Fold this protein.
Amino acid sequence: MQAISQVPRLSGFEMVMALSSALDLIAPSVVGHHKRVAYMATRLAAASGLSGELQARVGLAGALHDVGVLTREQVRTLHDPRVASDEDDGHGEFGDRLLASFEPTAPLAPLIRHHHVSWHRDRPETGRAPIESHILHLADRVDVQIRLDGEILGQVPGIVDGIVERSGTSFAPDLVDAFRQLAEQEGFWLDMVTPGLDALLGGMLAGNSLDYALTFDNLLGISRLFSQIIDFRSRFTAAHSAGVAIVAQTLARELGFSPEDCDLMRLAGYLHDLGKLAVPAEILEKPGSLTQDELWVVRKHSYYTDKVLRTLSGFDTIRAWAASHHETLDRKGYPFRLGADRLDLGARVMAVADVFAAISEDRPYRSRMLGAEVLEVFDGLSAARKLDPEVIGILLANQDVLRGHLETVQQAVAEGYYAVVPSGRSDEPPSDNP
Ligand SMILES: [Fe+2]
Ligand SMILES: [Fe+2]
Ligand SMILES: [Fe+2]
Ligand SMILES: [Fe+2]
């Protein structure tokens, strides 16, 4: 089959910005938090005389700094301006380990690890927290005090007083001085609450270490990192996207897709559940049945996959394949109720791959399915014209090979998972619930 799509041409920086937007989906109250912190941190780094390269590194780290936050409870605590900021709940360490596992983002990892360390507890000369982490800490604490529903300029004196009060304790005195000067500029505050912050950051961080056109291998690597950020939030889903990626790629090959499109299918598999960053770990790990509210939160995730991937140029095909994985041929899927006439073969492949990977994994409320159970699920989906019967036929004909691929991937990912997740989360016993 002739290639129907082209490898997207975009930079690692654009991918990081997309991930940064996705991280804020976990709670409506924190929309824009990562990018405002990136902005303030970059300005503070410049005002403190850091080199252009370090400014860009601080900015990138700001854009991803809470990548290790898993639960809404953590978000509530971290964004409560009354709560002390140096309580370590482990999200800095988890974020560090996630980003350290991928070479291009590894330089950001140590900055993120220490972004809640107070100045008086850990001075840079002791060699633990770099000054860049203290910059992130200050920027983060400023942002949690900003009320987006009020006039920002009226809030400035109160925010500045609160920061100055903690100079020499929570925050480095030199950084507080730099912040006071920046805070005098109305533009400093208005930049953060005026639409267009993405473009502004693009200019400020131009030439950063991820601002280069990605090769396909780079793109695959960064997408694999994303899949881990999405899936390591729960041990039940730790290998899910990697499993979907390999199954979808193999099915595409069996269906005669070009080698290029098979590769794109793999990439789409890594990214298909990107919107799950909006689903807190409390829900992903819940052993019992979900409440109606929780079900609605889960139901939003593929919409968010679509929304975030829409911001990336050249991603139309990948987005269509990735974000349609809960759509059905009978127009009863979600989030767009597309139906048979609007679901191309790639989207149909992804939907089948997603179900196969999901039912082959343990969940808090049931064990993985095998053999006859798998057959029964797909017979039902085929008979009801939910998913494509031809794709299902190919899946079932190759079930053993696909299961082998899935198990290899699950094993490889599990090793990475146990190396990365904070202790105490990785060794929870499996639930006995059916
Ligand atoms: Fe944080
Ligand atoms: Fe934060
Ligand atoms: Fe999904
Ligand atoms: Fe999925």
